[in-house]
Every structure is written in structure tokens, then in C-alpha cells.
Amino acid sequence: MKNSESYDLIIIGAGPIGMACAIEATKNGLKYLVIEKGVLVNSLYHFPTNMTFFSTSNLLEIGDVPFISHSDKPTRREALEYYRRVWQSWKLNIHLYEEVLSVTEKAKEYQVNTSRAQYKTRFMIIATGFFGKSVSMNVPGEDLPKVRHYYDEAHPYIGQKILVVGAANSACDVALETYLKGAEVTMAIRSATIYERVKYWIKPNIENRISEGSIKAYFDTTVKEIRPREVVLETPGGDVTIENDFVLAMTGYQPDYGLLDMIGIENRGDEFRTPVYDENTLETNLPNVYLAGVICGGLKTNVLFIENSRIHAQMILRDIMAKRSV
User: Fold this and answer.
1) Calculated CA dihedral for residues 236, 242, 247, 250, nearest 10 degrees
2) DSSP symbol at 156
3) 63-67: long-range contacts at Cβ-Cβ below 8 A with a sequence spacing of 24 or more?
4) The whole model's pTM is what?
5) Are 79 and 41 in contact (CB under 8 A)?
6) pLDDT under 50: residue ranges of the chain
7) Which of 226, 249, 272 is the last residue of a domain?
8) What is the model's pLDDT at position 255?
9) In terms of domains, do 47 and 157 share one?
10) Do 269 and 241 reside in the same domain of the chain?
């Protein structure tokens, strides 16, 4: 392992908000490092191949780099290329495929130990988002190879009997796309209806497919057990066993609480496990350690997005620079 190198600021997470923080650090002349356990904008990379953003391209822009897309709502592919250009334009100092293993505090500095090296820093920003860890169903058989919590494209499911778990945007997108490619699709939906906030151009389509019987949907239903060739559903009318080749569990994602706990960042004890931070500076209970981006919402993943958390970078760097000037 390399000897410790000192930085003014270490940023954990190379998503759009972590990159925005790096850009602000560059503007302020700080020596910084971004550490990312996966690829650049790792969360976006794991979005479905054919996904289209709900936001317009200008709302996803960072660092004054224009985001030009072919339509009002950019695609995943366009977003990946855009953030690559941002990285290249700003020459951001990002270490990819490097995982943070531990963080310790000593003499008003933090030592960050990773899978490759050790670093020292006075200031640290956690911008790891919430897409890194899927929400488990906690049912027997969930560890079978046929169960997927991430979806890429429909081709592998042609001619297969699949169960889509969930009723939000991802689940509806997956159900429709796999159905249109020739899969036999069943949905297990915990609530009595499709999620009301599903994209306005998707909701009527999925409801019509369910109504006509093209997609079979079990409402007020949960998965009870997953077996190699079938799935048991717990429905209002009793247990139902259906033939099954794949389970696509679109059950949502959550912040990496293991990392937050390891670092020592507390949460407020509410139902959303919201991390503790100052609303004005985004500083956590740990001095000089900040949160940025959607991770600030904890399990409440429908309030913060790239669009309304880009400002976090400026808020944090303003506080950092004020402290450095004292």
C-alpha cells in the first residue's frame, strides 16, 4: 500500500454531485481527490440501457459545461457521455475502482484507508448517492441466480416467464419493455394500485396492459418464496404459485449505511434514517465532514435529485473556504 498523501479535501463518490464538488474545489484552488469504488457516475451506469431521464438536459448540467441532447429528455447513454466530457474538460482528479475501507480521525485530520492507498485530509465530502445498495425482499430464495435487483435490457428475457416486483417507475418500465420483447410478464405489487407518481407517459400504458390482461398483475401482494422454477406469492386470496424463470426485483435502493456507520455519521432516528447534517452547511456530526446530493435524504429517495442538489457543492465549499480563512 502506498504511503499517505495529504489533501485539502477528499470526496467519496464520483457521481454528478461528487464531480460538482470537485469542480468547486478546483475553482477554489484546493488540492483534492475523488475516490470512487466503481466507474465514473457509477449509479447512472447501472440504470437500464434504454432509460430516459425525467429531467431536461439543462437541469443535469454541472461545471458550466453545456449538455446537448437529441430531445428534451436525455437518455442514459447521452448522460454517460456528458459526464465523461465534464471529467475531461475540468481534468478532475478521480480515482476509479478504489474502495474506501476505513476512516479514522487523529489530530484534527482524517486518515482515509482504501483498497489501494492511505490518504490524509482535513475536509471530507460523502457523495455516494443511494443507488449503490438494493433494498432486499428478505424472502427465501432471494439469493438464487435468477433474481436480479438491477436491470439492463430486455434481450436476456425474450421468451421467459418473469416476475417484476414493484410498481414505481423502474418496475413499470421493466414490465413494459420485457413484455414488448416477448417475455411473459407478471407483476407483484405491494399496494392496491400502480404508484401514483409513475411518469405520466408510462402510467396509462402499464395500466392498459394490465387491464387487457397482457401483463398479469397481483395487487396487495408480496413475494413469499422464490424457487428455481417457480415463485410463491402471498395474495389477498391466499398463496399463489406461478411458473417462473427470472425475478426482477425493482424494490428500490438505499444509501450505503455501512459506509456512513463506519465513518461515524449519525442519523436522526426517524423512519427514513436521515443522516445528521446542518441544513445550511451540510456538515455532519463529525467536524469538517459533509454530505452532498441525494444521500442527504436517507431512505426518502424522492425528494433530492441531481437537479436540486447541485447547489450542495457551492454550499459546502463556501463553508470549507470560510474555515480555511480563519
Assistant:
1) -20
2) G
3) 63/19, 63/20, 63/23, 63/89, 63/90, 65/89, 65/90
4) 0.86
5) yes
6) none
7) 249
8) 86
9) no
10) no
